Amino acid sequence: MTSRERVMATLNFRTPDRLPKDLGGMRSTGISAFAYPALVKALGLPPRLPRLYDTGQMLALPDLDVLDALGCDVVTADMFPSTNAFPEPEIWHPYDFNGRLPALVHNPAGFTVESDGVIVQGTGSWASRMLTNSFVFNFEHAGQPLDLEGELVLPDVEKLKEDLKKNLLTEAQVQASAAHLRRVRAATDRAILFNGVGAGLGFPGGMAAYSMLCLIEPELVRELHALRTAAAVENLRRLLPAIAESVDVIMVAADDQGIQTTTILPPAVFRDLYVPYYRQANDAIHEVAPGVKTFLHCCGAVYDILDDIVAAGFDVFNPVQWSAGGRSYREWKDKCRNRIALWGGGVNTQTTLPRGTVDDVAREAGEVAAYLSGDNGYVFCAIHNLLAEVPPEKVLALYRAAR
After folding, report:
1. What are the residues facing 379 on neighbouring strands?
2. CA distances from 259 to 189, 245, 262, 339 (A)
3. Which residues contact 12 (CB under 8 A, 6 or more apart)?
4. 286, part of any domain
5. Could you read off the pLDDT of 129-157 as tens digits, one per residue?
6. Which of 33, 222, 314, 381 has the least CB density, counted as fewest CB within 10 Å?
7. Residue 17 domain flag
8. Rounded Cα distance, 351 and 19, in Å
9. How would you classify the pairing of strands 293-297 and 316-318?
10. What is the reported pLDDT for 81?
11. Is residue 52 part of a domain?
C-alpha cells in the first residue's frame, strides 16, 4: 500500500498492510522545535534548521526524511502555504529566538525581544510572550480573562454577522488554494490532512465565560452557532469542489470540550448546543466531497460525549486522551469501535512520555497501538504534541513500538 491507501483503508475500517502513523499532520500531533534537532541527529540525518509552522506552540514542520525514518504516512497542508509535502524556501526566513533556537519562520519581523530576554510575538491584544525559561508563547490569562466581579459580556451579534461576511472566501482565494493543493497532491503519495478551513465553534471569548453563556443564554448561543455554521458551510461549499480531489482528511474543528476530569459542559448541553451545528458542517462536507474524511480534535475527559461526537457525523476523532477522566484506552476503543476512527492516544504524554523510561514508553505504546488498532480505524501518534523536554530516544521508542 501507499501511505495514502494505508491511511484511507484504516479510516474506512479496512485492514491496512501495517499500522499508519502520523507526526505533525495537524498542530496537536507534532513535535516541539526545541526537541526536533536532537531527533534529526538521533535518526542519523543531516542537520537543518527547523521550520516553525506554529510559532505559538513552537512546533517544527517535520521533514520528509524524518517522516520516512519514522514510518509516518501523513503530510499537512494549509489553505495557503505551508506544507511539508515539498520544500518552500521562498516562504521561510531565519530567526534565532534571541540565540535560543536557530530556526526558520514565516515572518521574523513579527517578533521583538525585551531587555530581559523575553520574546514577544504580535502586538496589542494579540501579543504573546515566551519567557527565557519557557518553550512556548503564552497570552496573559491564557488569552481568556474572566472578571467574576463584573457582568457577563454578551457577544455582539451584528458585529459577528459583519465579520463572518468579510471572511467568506473569494474566488481568487479558492483558486490559489486549489492550485497549491494540486501541487501538494502531485508531490506525495502520503495522506493529506488539510487544516485550512473548518467549522469550529469552540468557546469564543474564553472557556469560562462562554460556558456560562451556554448555561444562562442558550438561545443566544444557538443564534451564534447558527451564524458561524452557516458561514463555515458557505466557505466549504465554495472551496471543496476545487480541492476535493487533492485532500484526504479535513480538519473541521479543534474544539476542546474536556478538562482533566470531566467534560466542560454537561453532556446534554453539548448535545443541544454543539452537535446539530457540527452535523450540518459534516453533512455538507460529505455531500460535496464524499471521499474526504472529517476530523475533530477535542482534548480532555470527553468519554461521556463520544456518542454525541459520533452523532455529529465526524469520521475521525483526536487526540484520544484516554488518560483523562478515569477511563482506559480499552474503554475508549470499545465505545468507538467501527463507528468513528481514532487518531492519536499512542502514549500518555503527561506522565509516561516525560517521566517514564524508554522501556516504559515502548511498552505502553506497543500495548495501546495493539488494542486501538483492533478492527482497524486507527492512526498512531501520541496524545498531543511531543514537548521540548522529551529526548529523542523516547520518540524513537514510541514510533518503533507502533507495529
Report:
1. 343
2. 37, 37, 6, 24
3. none
4. yes
5. 999 999 999 988 877 777 777 778 889 99
6. 222
7. yes
8. 24
9. parallel
10. 72
11. no
Domain count across the chain:
1
**pTM score of the predicted model:** 0.96
Residue 79's pLDDT is 85
End-to-end C-alpha distance for the chain, whole angstroms: 15
Q: Are 48 and 40 in contact (CB under 8 A)?
A: yes
For residue range 249-286, list pLDDT tens digits in order: 999 999 999 999 999 999 999 999 999 999 999 999 99
Q: What is the CATH number of the domain that holds 277?
A: 3.20.20.210
Q: What is the pLDDT of residue 147?
A: 75
Burial 184-208 (b: 16+ CB within 10 A, else e): bbebbebbbbbbbbbbbbebebbbe
C-alpha cell at 236: 466549504
Angle between helices 218-243 and 171-187 in degrees, nearest 10: 60
pLDDT band at 125 (very low <50, low <70, confident <90, very high): confident
The DSSP H or E segment spanning 77 is strand 74-77
Cell triple for 221: 448561543
Q: Average pLDDT for residues 203-220, to the nearest whole number?
A: 93
pLDDT of residue 148: 76
Distance CA 192, CA 289 (A): 14
Q: Are strands 59-60 and 31-32 parallel, antiparallel or unpaired?
A: antiparallel
Give the 3-state secondary structure percentages of the chain, helix then strand then coil, rounded to 5.
Answer: 40, 15, 45
pLDDT at 1: 96
Residue 379 pLDDT > 90, yes or no? Answer: yes
| DSSP secondary structure, 127-186, as one string | -EEE-TT-SS-B-GGGG----TTSPPPPP-HHHHHHHHHHTSPPHHHHHHHHHHHHHHHH
256 contacts 299 by C-beta, under 8 angstroms: yes
Is 108 contained in some domain?
A: no
User: So what's the pLDDT on residue 193?
Assistant: 98
Average pLDDT of the chain, as a whole number: 96
CA gap 234, 236 in Å, rounded: 5
Q: Which domain holds residue 279?
A: 3-31+62-87+151-401
Looking at the chain, how many residues does it have? 403
CB atoms within 10 A of CB 152: 14
